[in-house]
Amino acid sequence: MSYESAKAAFADWDVDTEAAISRLKTVPISVHCWQGDDVTGFERRSGTSGGGIQATGNHPGRARTPDELRADLEFAYSMIPGRHRLNLHAIYMDTDESPDRDQIEYKHFAPWVDWAKEQGIGLDFNPTFFGHAKADDNLTLSHPDAGIRDFWIEHGKRTREIAARFGAELGSPCINNIWVPDGYKDIPVDRMAARKRLEASLDAMLSVPHDAGQMRDAVESKLFGIGVEACTIGSHEFYLGYAIRESTLLCLDMGHFHPTESISDKLSAVALSLPQILLHVSRPMRWDSDHVILLNDDILAMARELVSADLLDRTSIGLDFFDATISRTAAWVIGTRNMQKALLRALLMPWDRLRSIEEKLDFTTRLTLTEEFNDLPFGTIWEEFCKRMDTPTGLALISALTRYDESVAARG
Ligand code: RNT
Ligand code: ZN
After folding, report:
1. Residue 173 Cα to ligand 1 middle (Å)
2. Structure confidence by residue, pLDDT tens digits, 50-108
3. Which of 251, 256, 364, 400 has the fewest CB atoms within 10 Å distance of its CB?
4. Is the CB of 124 under 6 A from ligand 1?
């Protein structure tokens, strides 16, 4: 089908495909660096990720150095329409020095900023509270030992400073997202004490004010993790309250809730109390497994809420998945494009018509319309978008992904 006839098919429903395409161009996705190397990082002092985060698989081609990771990202970005961001974790330093987490400085990450400037992309950041001897108990900011808490508080403070510098250098606010693995494997007797310690540590970490034009704090909740089945200190209720009280962003990760709960329903609810939201778009399978996101009902429902509730301008869309059984660059490309496809579909919905029918409580027509509408030629609009953005689709995309994957297979 030609773009012109697809455009006409949408116009029959009073949907303007040009407006949808223009809007989609302006939505950046924060691509997470950690899909490129299975959450390993470039620290010289520690190894596996830990903290319940686990990438499984041994597909060849894992990026082993910052240069390899940047090369992989450049390729991935060239296959993703539009201009996006990079989400770095503190273990992705690029330096010959071996600073411990409480010693990291901007200079250890400066090469990333030079590269981001060259690429014309913004950076986001994350303190890394896992994969370290001082996180072996799965307790960091809520550890009963004040020395351990102080170590992690210092780490967090430093990441905020680095994030602010990222934002200043790149002229775009850097979101610094705090996720800690803290929790208990078996039933604790004093949840309150642990939560008070986490709260006090966060307060100490966030005590230094930073310009919101340079950096913004986000806090990420979780239901449970492997090894912390009985109690997660930073639960949803904990962080929802904290974010509202302290004016931080709330990060909603799609893998961090009970499987029958969905982020799509939470967005409009939390947005009433929070000015800005961060998403970790992910695909949980049976647990927080971080599979590559598909264009499935969950993603579509979430994108629809972002558009329907007019939340696109105050939501930062970050990705959080890592699969080591497939090409890591293909994983980035497929996942990011799926997020964009979901947004495009949402932007192409006949919202006015649907809203007026819902207001009349005409649920039959609402269902008929949404289901008939599914047959419209969304794929043709997506193809047109990719063509305008100079990005391949279909067979051309597949062969480019395969060629790149073959070119990095010898990395060992
Ligand atoms: C862990 C959280 C967290 C991490 C990243 C690497 O369950 O989702 O966001 O995946 O920080
Ligand atoms: Zn996450």
Report:
1. 21
2. 677 789 999 999 999 999 999 999 999 999 999 999 999 999 999 999 999 999 999 99
3. 364
4. no
Tokens of 137: 């108990």
Burial class, 219, CB count within 10 angstroms (exposed 0-12 / middle 13-18 / buried 19+): buried
Domains, the chain, ranges and CATH? 28-349 (3.20.20.150)
Rounded Cα gap, residues 375 and 383, in angstroms = 16
Q: Is residue 143 a contact partner of residue 149, using CB atoms and an 8 Å limit?
A: yes
pLDDT of residue 412: 67
Average of pLDDT values for 262-283?
98
Catalytic positions are: 179, 220, 222, 253, 256, 280, 288, 290, 320
312: tokens are 């696109």
Could you identify the atom of ligand 1 that is nearest to the CA of residue 126? Answer: 11
Ligand 1: residue whose CA is nearest its atom 5: 320
Under 8 Å between Cβ of 64 and 37: yes
Q: Which atom of ligand 1 is nearest to the CA of 220?
A: 9
Query: How many other CB atoms are there within 10 angstroms of residue 286's CB atom?
Result: 6
Assess whether the C-beta atom of 125 lies below 6 angstroms from ligand 1: no
292 in Cβ contact with 330 (< 8 Å): no
| Owner of token pair 């399978």 | 285
Q: Is 72 in the pocket of ligand 1 (CB under 6 A)?
A: no
Give the Å distances, CA to CA, from 228 to 53, 56, 73, 78, 182: 11, 19, 33, 39, 8
5 contacts: CB under 8 Å, gap ≥ 6 = 377, 380
**For the chain, percent of residues with pLDDT exceeding 90:** 97
> Is the pTM for the entire model greater than 0.90?
yes
* Pocket of ligand 1 contains residue 220 by CB under 6 Å: yes
CB 198 within 8 A of CB 148: no
pLDDT tens digits for range 102-117:
999 999 999 999 999 9
* C-alpha of residue 320 to centroid of ligand 2, in Å: 5
Q: How far is the CA of 282 from the centre of ligand 2 (A)?
A: 8
